[in-house]
């Protein structure tokens, strides 16, 4: 009786192309999620995000990464609310 050949298995990280755009974007988004996790959890539970306190660069990074979204109020056109997606 023949013995079965051992199957060489590769780990998930050996199959990832770290130079691909999708992997790069995923890594950047995970970094943003980790860095701003407390803010995002508060936003998720309905606590308004204070843009003045947080800073425009951070807000823009989170919006560009599709982590936060601006919600325009119909009642007050000058009112902008940020919420986690």
How is this structure best described in words?
- It is a single chain.
- With 85 residues, the protein is an alpha+beta fold.
- The protein has one domain.
- The protein is 47% helix and 12% strand.
- Strand 1 and strand 2 form a beta hairpin.
- The longest helix is centred in the first third of the chain and has 15 residues.
Secondary structure elements and pairings:
Elements: H1 12-15, H2 21-35, H3 37-44, H4 51-54, H5 56-64, E1 68-72, E2 80-84
TL;DR?
The protein is α+β, with helices and mostly antiparallel strands and 85 residues long. Helix content is 47%, strand content 12%.
Q: Count the DSSP helices.
A: 5
Q: How far do the termini sit from each other? A: 58 Å
Q: What would you call the shape?
A: elongated
How many separate domains? 1
Unreliable runs: 75-79
What about the largest sheet? 2 strands, antiparallel
The string of secondary-structure elements, in order, is HHHHHEE
- Tell me the fraction of residues in β-strands, as a range: 5-15%
Alpha-carbon Rg, integer: 21 Å
- Helix-strand category: alpha+beta
Count of DSSP strands: 2
